[in-house]
Structures are given as structure tokens and as C-alpha cells.
Specification:
Elements: H1 2-28, H2 35-38, H3 41-51, H4 56-69, H5 74-90, H6 93-109, H7 116-128, H8 139-154, H9 159-188, H10 192-205, H11 212-225, H12 229-242, H13 248-286
Helix pairs in contact: 3-4, 3-5, 4-5, 5-6, 6-7, 7-8, 8-9, 9-10, 10-11, 11-12, 11-13, 12-13
Length: 287
Amino acid sequence: MRKKFTINFMLMWIILLGLLAVAAGCKKKGVSLSPEDLGSDKEIYQKAKKRIKRDPARARLLFKEIMHLYPDSIYARRAKIGIADSYFKQKDASSLIMAATEYQEYVSLYPNSPDAVYAKFQVAMCYFKQMKKAGRDQTNTVLTRSALESMIKMYPDTKEAEQAKKMIENTWQRLATHYYLIGVSNYRLKAYKGAITRFKQVIDDYPGFKKNDRLFYFTGKCYFAMKDYDSAISFFQKIINSFPKSKYVKKAGKMIRKITDIKSTKPQKEKLEKMKDKKIKSKSDKK
């Protein structure tokens, strides 16, 4: 009897140790068996905020626990932002997409919340972080600009709106550079009509392009190659008039002189050609 009791006692002790080990393991992973194990909503939130930089995935679990255990708490609302921030901290493309979704959901749920301005701005930042250099795919540049414009429309009188305006300028310059580089590439391939189409796109859609002196120079070169000398001169003259300190001023001047020489020698060449034709004709008539 005593032996049987000893065996049962040992079995109970082993089971108890096992349960304690499971509980310890759950706590280690940031998952609790009950609200009492994790603490109050504020305590869980503070733990998550401390961990978000070094371990965003673990912080995210804690934010989700707040929303699950304390759905009506003010910290549940803040936890929604925390979840978005945890994705944003991971920086990879898929995480940034998740972050943008979470931020936008927060704005949709709580548009008048003090954190809504931040969340709306962060939607744009998710796309901004994924923008590629000019010459490559500009989808995220367009999405960034659209998100920033939406943010300014919703929250115009904020410091974030002022920052958004500066960022929009960045996206405009990047898109203008993108189309300009495509035009230059076409010019080098001697696809002059295609190059002019891209250059005109920049001129019409992005008048504040910071490299307009280069843009006008290559546009003029395209027209020169196509022997449209009047159009070429107009673009070279724009450089001289509008960008007197540009390195392209001298190049534009040379091109204007070259066109002037061509135009002045053209009548002489035509005259010589006519004289040759007359001689050939008179010789044939004598025969």
C-alpha cells in the first residue's frame, strides 16, 4: 500500500513539474495562460513597446493579446497601431504591405483619433520605403504620392501635412527623372521620336523639373538629328535664356552656331546642285 502511494505521489509530482514547464515556456514566448499572468492592459502595452525595436514579432503577439483580453480598453486601440508599427519595423516588402493595411484599417475605424494622422502618414511611408531609383519600376512612387495627397486632404492643418508636401515634391522629381532617363535612352538609340515624346511628357507634366537645362538640351539635339532646325534652336535658346549658369549654355551656343552655318550654306548647296543639273541637262540635249 505504501509502495503504491509512493508511486502515485511521484507521478503527481512529475505531472506538476510538466505543467510548470509548459507555463514557463508559454511565458517565454510571450503567450499567457490568463490575464493575470500577463498583467494589466497598460503593463502588457509597456512590455510590447519595449520589445518592438529588438523583437517586433514578439511585440506583435503582446499587442494582439491586449486586443484579445481587453477589447474595450484604450490600450486595445493603441495596440492596433502597435501591430502596424511592428510590421513597419521589419522593413521587408511583405511586412510593409501588412503595415500599410493595418495603418489604413486604423484610420478607417478611428478617423478622429489623435493617432489617426500618424497612421495615415505611415501608410505613405510604407510605400515610400519601397520606392525604387529613377529608371526602374515607379509603382510605389505613384502610390506614395497618392497616399500623401490623401493624407493632406484628410488632415490639412497638421505638421505631418507640411512634411507630406515636401515628400510629394520628392516623388514628382523622381517620376520626372524617370521619364527623362527613358527619353535619353531613346535618344542614344537614335529613336528620336520616342525620345521627344518622353521629353514632352516631362515638360508638360513636371514643369518644376530640376534638370530642365539637360532636358531642353537633349530635346534640341533630337530635333537637330531630325533636321527640324527651328525647333532645335528654340530649345537651345531656352537654355541660354533661363539657365545662364548651366554647363549646357556653351553646348547650346555651339549647336545654334552649327545650325546657323547649315542654314547659311544650304542655299549655296542648292544653287550648286541646280547648276550641276543644268550642265547635265545641256550635255544630254547636245547629244
